[in-house]
Every structure is written in structure tokens, then in C-alpha cells.
Design brief:
Family: Belongs to the diacylglycerol/lipid kinase family.
Strand content: 25-35%
Pfam families: DAGK_cat, YegS_C
Radius of gyration: 19 Å
Largest sheet: 6 strands, antiparallel
Keywords: ATP-binding, Kinase, Lipid biosynthesis, Lipid metabolism, Magnesium, Metal-binding, Nucleotide-binding, Phospholipid biosynthesis, Phospholipid metabolism, Transferase
CATH topology of the largest domain: Tumour Suppressor Smad4
Distance between the termini: 21 Å
EC number: 2.7.1.107
Enzyme class: transferase
CATH architecture of the largest domain: Sandwich
Order of helices and strands: EHHEHEHEHHEEEHHHEEEEHEEEEE
Strand order of the largest sheet: 6-5-16-13-8-9
Number of strands: 16
């Protein structure tokens, strides 16, 4: 029986150029041995998530997420809760494409990204689980909290389509003067932090906002988050830390940073009059308090990475 694949694509991603390459993408997957069909996401909430869950329940062997980080996150949320999960392929067509960058997937050529899938090189990937009394969501690249981490979902989608990465830079310049520390309590494996912080990150890859130096020792499948808590809210000090990030990742030893590995992380806002929105893979993921757990090697994903240092599936 031929393997079945479903391409779930966002027709507005890649400045709306993805649609023009869809036939070529389907042809690559067909030649690779998949009976392939496509689904265009709609403005309806959770369109990609629901379609991914539907085809997984029907026994499809492969789900391909074609779009930006938001589309990929929705697909992850469709298949991660299931007992039987299909393999995942990625065709990046967004603005930052952090996850694809970490997997070595071509970000400038949709057809070449499809060919990565047909090479059959699967790696086991960790998946993050975020939950509180109201929600349970999954993520595969980053979870974060703090004013500046709201950047990715504060930029309107139409501006991202037209102006791409420039839209993020403009929004960052607007938000940086407004950055204020928050009173938070965080617990993690072997420790806790209670006090002021401007932001926290739980990274699962080495690419955050297009920068690969933020979490230089991140692993795709070690069962741990790489945790960063930025204790300062001073704008000049944040810029100093960013300079250290760009200068070889020297921020990891700075006293204004807590940097460590952890499988579990819980965060709460100490000021009950304020809310701390949570960013999951660049999308709004609810508000704190929130508990995070790393699900070790939860999904099998096609990548363009060399066999080492990541362990490939048989």
C-alpha cells in the first residue's frame, strides 16, 4: 500500500508565493512514494490544527506543514496529543522560519525543502507541553513570557506578508522603550527564582528570532528545555546583553541571566493585577500561571541535518 501524505499549507505565507509552487511540491512527494493531497488553511480558528488531527486519525503516514512558524505550531498541536502520530515534514514559508533554520531545511526554495522530506532522514524531536487549569498546548521551538516576547503576535499578519522581517524590526524599536520588568516566580529542576525579570525563554532549538547565538547549546532531543531568565528590565542593559548575544553568545555567563537546562518549568505572575501573556512558537498561548514539560523525542521529523550530533531514527 502506498504511503499517504497531506500537505497543509497557508496560502498567504511566503508573501503568497507558496501557492505558485504547490504543484511542484506535490510532484516531488509523489515521486518520493507518497500518495499526496493538499489542504489550504482558512481564516477559521485552528484550521491547520483540526486538519492535521483529522488526517492523523485516518492513518496518514506523513503530514507536511507548509507555512510560517504559526502554521507549523498549529499542525504540531493537531498531532502531538495523539497516541499514533504521523511523521512530520516542514516547508518553511514564513518570516523568520526559526524551526526550519534549526533543522537545516532550505528557507529560500520550497521545492528543495520538499526534497528534504523525500530523502527519508527522520530525527526524533522533543515537543514542549504548556498547560494550566484552562488550556493545554504544544510547541516545538520556544515558549516565552515578558513584554518583548509579545513582538511576534503584535505584528499584524498583513504587514508581515508585505514587509517581511522589516515589520518585526520596526515593532521591536517601538516596544523596547516600553519594556518593564515583571514580578514573577519561576520554579525549575533544581532551583527557583522569585523577583523582577523582563522576560524568560524556554528554547528547544538554537534559533530564536533568527538568532542562533541566543541558546548556543540547545539540543533537539535531549529531553530538556534551555531556560533563560533575563533579570534586568533596564533598556540599556538589555541592549548590552543583546550585544553579548551577537558577540559569540557570551550572555550565558552574565550575572543578569539565569541560563540552565530543565525538563520542567512553572511560572506565575506575582502581581495579580497584571497578566503575563505566554508566547508559544510566536503565537499567543494563554496567560500565566503556566506549567511546561518537555516530552522527549515525541515526534519524528524530516530534517537536513548531518547524522551527527543528532541521532537519526532507524
Amino acid at each position: 500500500m502506498r504511503r499517504r501524505a497531506r500537505v497543509i499549507y497557508n496560502p498567504t505565507s511566503g508573501r503568497e508565493t507558496l501557492k505558485a509552487k504547490l504543484v511542484d511540491i506535490l510532484d516531488v512527494l509523489e515521486r518520493g512514494g507518497y500518495e499526496t493531497s493538499a489542504y489550504a488553511t482558512t481564516p477559521q480558528q485552528n484550521s491547520a490544527r483540526d486538519e492535521a488531527a483529522r488526517v492523523a486519525h485516518e492513518g496518514f503516514d506523513l503530514v507536511v506543514a507548509a507555512g510560517g512558524d504559526g502554521t507549523i505550531n498549529e499542525v504540531i498541536n493537531g498531532i502531538a496529543p495523539l497516541e499514533q502520530r504521523p511523521n512530520l515534514g516542514i516547508i518553511p514559508a514564513g518570516t523568520t522560519n526559526d524551526f526550519a533554520r534549526a533543522l537545516g531545511i532550505p528557507r529560500a526554495d520550497f521545492v528543495e525543502a520538499a526534497r528534504v522530506i523525500t530523502q527519508g532522514r527522520l530525527i526524533p524531536m522533543d515537543v514542549g507541553k504548556a498547560s494550566n487549569d484552562e488550556i493545554t498546548k504544544y510547541f516545538i521551538n520556544i515558549a516565552a513570557g515578558g513584554r518583548l516576547t509579545e513582538l511576534t503576535y503584535d505584528v499584524p499578519s498583513d504587514l508581515k506578508t508585505v514587509f517581511g522581517y522589516i515589520a518585526y524590526l520596526v515593532k521591536a524599536m517601538e516596544m523596547l522603550p516600553q519594556a518593564r520588568p515583571i514580578e514573577m516566580k519561576a520554579t525549575f529542576d533544581g532551583g527557583e527564582y522569585e523577583g523582577k525579570a523582563s522576560m524568560f525563554f524556554l528554547a528547544m532549538t538554537n534559533s530564536v528570532g533568527g538568532l542562533e547565538q541566543v541558546v548556543p547549546n540547545a539540543s533537539l532531543n535531549d529531553g530538556n528545555f534551555t531556560m533563560i531568565i533575563v533579570k534586568t528590565g533596564n533598556m540599556m542593559e538589555i541592549l548590552q546583553l543583546l550585544t553579548k548575544v551577537l558577540n559569540g553568545g557570551r550572555h550565558v555567563n552574565d550575572a543578569r541571566i539565569i541560563y540552565k537546562k530543565t525538563k520542567h518549568f512553572t511560572v506565575a505572575q506575582q502581581n495579580t493585577n497584571l497578566q503575563m501573556p505566554i508566547n508559544l512558537d510566536g503565537e499567543f498561548g494563554g496567560t500565566a500561571p503556566m506549567h511546561f514539560e518537555n516530552l522527549k523525542e515525541h515526534l519524528s521529523i524530516f530534517s537536513n541535518l548531518p547524522p551527527e550530533p543528532q541521532r537519526l531514527l532507524e
